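Protocol step 4 of 5: obtain the predicted structure for the target chain.
Materials: sequence only (see below). No template structures provided, no constraints applied. The aim of this step is simply to have a reference model before the mutagenesis design in step 5. Sequence pasted as it appears in the construct record:
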Amino acid sequence: MTDHNTPTTYLEPTQESGRAFVMRRMQGNIIMLNLLRFREVADYSATPELAPETPISGAAAFQKYIDHTLPYLHETGGDISFLGSGGHFLIGPQSERWDLAMMIRQTSAESFLAFASHKDYLAGMGHRTAAVEDSRLLPLTEVTAATP
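Step 4 output (structure tokens):
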């Protein structure tokens, strides 16, 4: 039985969303827009081997994830294009807040998939899992404006 009072959270792609991403056959550079809400205290119960000696915030755990991830992101042709603190929407549901907005540039959908499946990158995913309470990930491609 589903509890309709518990909000749905999104922490990783589903098989269907992954398949839809591949089927889009995105060309050229892509930007992955991440919206992230952090746990007050990071939850390392799924990966205790990565847990620091003393409890840390979700934001601090996410910084550990970024530190771990950057070499593999760069190796696959990607980089962080934007990292900014968030808050509540100016236009949007006032019940939602996002602690961090992050834009990751990748040279192609294939390079993103190579990054996302990199064995050494995946070894540090526990920091992200410990940090994030809820997230959104939106793949974007550049649109060229029509000239009059």
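Step 4 remarks: The mean pLDDT is 91. The chain has one domain: 26-141.
Proceed to step 5.
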